Target: Serpin domain-containing protein
Amino acid sequence: MRKKRHTCLDSIICLEEIDVCGTYSISKRPVHQDLQKSMMRTTLVLLLGALALCHAQLSETEDAGVEEEAVELFTTDKTKMAAATSDFGYNLFRALAGGDPKTNVFLAPISVSAALTQLSMGASPDRSERWLYRTLRYHTLQDPQLHNTLRDLLASLRAPGKGLSIAARVYLARRLRVKQDYFDVVEKQYGVKPKTLMGGAKDMNEMNDWVKQQTGGKVTSFLSKSLGRNSGVVPVSAAYFKGKWITRFSHSGAKEDFKIDGEAPFSIPMMQQDNYPVKMGVDPDLGCTIAQIQMQDDISMFVFLPDDVTQNMTLVEESLTAEFVQDLSMSLHTVQVSLTLPVLKFSYSTDLLPLLAGLGLDEFLADTDLIKITSQAAKLSSLNHKVVMEMAPEGTQYASSNPAPTPLSYRVDHPFLFLVRDEASGALLFIGRVVNPRNLRI
Model:
């Protein structure tokens, strides 16, 4: 149980100005100043009246000193599991993004959770499994059937139409005398059998072929070089996502300027549509405007667009939790905007192993204790991860045919953060930071 928190506003939203292109800016002002100007902007303020109402309700509650309503956000084993995998994903993303604020960063956390959970099935229950569970946030679940719950969650996320393909597997060095029971229990639970490494280029080719097959041919060249001679335990994870919007974009491919902090703007392909329905809100404390855009099969994308052209999105990154995003999904309000988004197509790969120590697995990495896999000493050699994502302009519905376009504009034309979420479960599927889309390529 937790207290209901209104996240859509910390102050009254005012439309500071609207230029000839319909772009608006939102500022945080003392309440009395907004009220003095409200009569002059009645029509404009009504467009975001629901958002202002959210703040007013919050202020009334605080003034009255009444305790807020207690709300349970995650009520089933599946949604609790989704929240756990999401929180692990946000922690992993923060660790990855913190390395260099000037780089694009992408992650498919659910596939990493799947790979490390398979590994946990070979760990000693009193030590290594406990460390892995804490990092994966499973210690919060109190679910004796957590493997069944995760299996069911993964099956629902792989459902036809969602556009998500996941590959997760544990590879083991040939020199390790691996216990057959481990192979059997993982295959029975998750439908994928751990694989013994043969050595040399064969391992790279086998991994690349398997990942390509699991992702429908979309994630290719998973490894670009052979594994080292001393490879021990090698969990791998990969994901492909091609999202489809509910509301289509009528204009796509035209190049427009994308602004970069400290550099000259450059042109990239954009997709644009007037009268586009989005859920939107402003968080002045984070200094960003947030839009939730609906996709097919109960998927949505959240876009966090900083007020300024900046590479520093630390405040936004630090705020992300499963609870915060669930709050957003309930607090944002529907408006129609002139929406402009970059055409996203990218491939990204990295070794996540160096990040694990900072997530609380330093003891595990020092002494893996995989007693259910082998009685020999076994170390993790790498945690290779690769993602491919495409966003097409197509959709099943057309935007409103109202000939008068909305005066509101949401232009994602400078560095931003986004996440893709399964609304039914709340599971985080993809998360990324786009600093320089010129460097994105498949």
